[in-house]
Design brief:
Keywords: Membrane, Transmembrane, Transmembrane helix. This is Holin. It comes from Streptomyces capitiformicae. The chain is mainly alpha-helical. Helices cover 65% and strands 0% of the residues. It contains 5 helices and no strands. Helix 2 runs antiparallel to helix 3. The longest helix is centred in the N-terminal third of the chain and has 23 residues. It is elongated, with a radius of gyration of 23 Å.
Length: 127
């Protein structure tokens, strides 16, 4: 899987190095904020890979991105208590569940047992 013709791990490593370089030359962020920025970038790459791979993991990737984003905002000074954070994350989870329900279909049963009830009477077979 590639993004802009490069491996995602390479891009994340470059972003982390660039952030440290900017910090060395006056960009005012501490170690915790650098970690949070890198976490959000990694979660963003996770969303990108979930979209490209089409493996059904988009909802989970978006939830992790939302969680990383909230941590980033709190790390940069958003003054929300744990109750408000939990309410926002629960709302995001509920919205993703509603959306994901429209994206998922049940598999078609493939065995005789899945197609028939084991407790319902059935016509004799092979008579």
């Amino acid at each position: 899987m590639k993004i802009f013709g490069r491996e995602p791990a390479l891009l994340l490593g470059f972003a982390a190095a660039a952030l440290k370089l900017l910090t060395a030359f006056g960009f005012d962020v501490d170690d915790t904020q650098q970690t949070l920025i890198n976490t959000v970038l990694a979660a963003g790459v996770g969303v990108w890979l979930a979209i490209v791979a089409r493996d059904g993991a988009l909802g989970a990737a978006l939830m992790q991105l939302a969680q990383a984003g909230l941590a980033l905002f709190v790390g940069f000074g958003l003054d929300w208590g744990s109750e408000k954070q939990a309410t926002v994350m629960a709302t995001i989870a509920a919205l993703l569940a509603l959306w994901e329900r429209t994206q998922v279909t049940a598999p078609v049963p493939s065995t005789w047992l899945e197609q028939h009830s084991p407790v319902a009477p059935s016509a004799p077979r092979g008579v």
